[in-house]
Amino acid sequence: MTVTFGDHYLAMELPDELDYGFRENGAMMAYVSGNDALNLHVSTVTVTPKDPSRTTYVFDDVVEKARQKGFECRIIGADKAVYSYIESGKWERYEQRLYYWIVGCGVREIIFTASCLIDHPDYEQVKPILEQVPEMIASIRPAEAVA
Questions:
Q1: pLDDT digits (tens, 9 = 90+) for 74-117
Q2: 5 with 18: CB under 8 angstroms?
Q3: What span, in angstroms and rounded, lies between the C-alpha atoms of 22 and 29?
Q4: Are 12 and 5 in contact (CB under 8 A)?
Q5: What strand order describes the sheet that includes 2-5?
Q6: Are 108 and 45 in contact (CB under 8 A)?
Q7: CA 88, 76, 67: angle at the middle one, nearest 5?
Q8: d(Cα 100, Cα 39) in Å, to the nearest integer?
Q9: Are 114 and 40 in contact (CB under 8 A)?
Q10: Alpha-carbon gap, residue 12 to 140, rounded angstroms
Q11: How far apart are CA 11 and CA 16, in angstroms?
């Protein structure tokens, strides 16, 4: 299903098994109804460079940050740079894994954060959704391209 986000300037495809809504801060939250093992947050930051000709400002910044941090940076299409990393923790009585994908797309940084409770009984049901995040990222486009 096609959803708009980032103040509805961007669009992407979400897997049909996900429901979604928006938080007070404008971030999109996607989840499987009735399953607490996964929350996928998508937030955006738009940068206005002093030089308006720098239309790839955040794309270039994401490439540089990945290099500085020693992460692999993948270029998706001609307009998206992405790196990812994982952190572990605990939430209530569950082991938690936080998956991050940092995307540079023109002058927008898009942050995908998947919070997974890996020892939750419903985790196996949502695990395949994590594998679909790169496809979601690849589908990002300007919202006017949806019409």
A1: 999 889 999 999 999 887 888 888 999 999 998 899 999 999 88
A2: no
A3: 6
A4: yes
A5: 2-5, 10-13, 141-142
A6: yes
A7: 55
A8: 12
A9: yes
A10: 4
A11: 15
> Structure tokens of 59?
């794309």
Structure tokens at 84: 């990812």
Nearest to 14 by CA among 113, 120, 138: 138
Distance CA 8, CA 108 (A): 13
Cα–Cα distance measured from residue 36 to residue 56, given in angstroms and rounded to the nearest whole number = 37
> Rounded to an integer, what is the distance from CA 53 to the centroid of its chain?
26
What pTM was computed for the model?
A: 0.90
Distance (Å, rounded) from C-alpha 73 to C-alpha 144?
27
Q: Which helix (H) or strand (E) holds 109?
A: strand 108-117
Separation CA 93–CA 131 (nearest Å): 25
Q: Is the dihedral of CA 8, 135, 16, 24 positive or negative?
A: negative
**Amino acid in the structure at residue 105:** C
How high does pLDDT run on average in the chain? 90
Residue 75 tokens read as: 């270029």
